[in-house]
Design brief:
The protein is an all-alpha fold and 117 residues long. The chain has one domain. Helix content is 54%, strand content 0%. The chain has seven helices and no strands. It has helices at 10-22, 33-42, 46-57, 61-65, 76-85, 92-98, 104-109. Helix 1 (10-22) runs antiparallel to helix 2. The longest helix is centred in the first third of the chain and has 13 residues, at 10-22. The chain is globular. It starts with 9 loop residues before the first helix and ends in an 8-residue tail after the last helix.
C-alpha cells in the first residue's frame, strides 16, 4: 500500500507565508498559538509548520541584514510563493482566499492582515 503524500501544496505554502508575514521571527516555534492553530487546520504537525516558517526565513532580506540566516535549504514551493508575494505581502490573504481548493475554514483563518514588511 502506498503511503499518502505529505508534499506541501501551493495553498499550504501560501497559508504559511501569510503566517510568516504576521508573526516575528522569534515566535516561529512549535509552541506559538498561531502555529498550533494553523497546524491543526492543515492536518500537519506543529513542528512541520514551524520548520516551514523557518524555511521562508532564509529568503527574507530583512533578516539577512540582521545576520539571521533561517534554514540553509528549503523547498521550491517556498521560493515560488516568496517571489509571488514579496513585493506585496499584504495581498497574500486575498490570493489565498481566491485560490481553487481552499476551503471556507482556511478563508476564515486568513481574515487577519499580514504585517507590513
Amino acid at each position: 500500500m502506498a503511503k499518502p503524500s505529505n508534499k506541501w501544496t501551493r495553498d499550504e505554502h501560501i497559508l504559511v507565508f501569510n503566517l510568516y508575514c504576521r508573526i516575528p521571527f522569534g515566535r516561529q516555534h512549535s509552541r506559538a498559538p498561531e502555529i498550533i492553530e494553523l497546524a491543526k487546520l492543515l492536518g500537519r504537525s506543529r513542528g512541520s509548520v514551524a520548520l516551514k516558517l523557518n524555511n521562508f526565513s532564509r529568503l527574507d532580506p530583512e533578516l539577512k541584514t540582521r545576520g539571521v540566516k533561517g534554514m540553509a535549504q528549503g523547498a521550491k514551493g517556498e521560493l515560488d510563493v516568496w517571489r509571488d508575494f514579496e513585493d506585496n505581502p499584504r495581498s497574500v490573504w486575498v490570493g489565498t482566499a481566491s485560490g481553487g481548493g481552499v476551503n471556507r475554514g482556511i478563508f476564515a483563518y486568513e481574515q487577519g492582515s499580514p504585517r507590513a514588511r
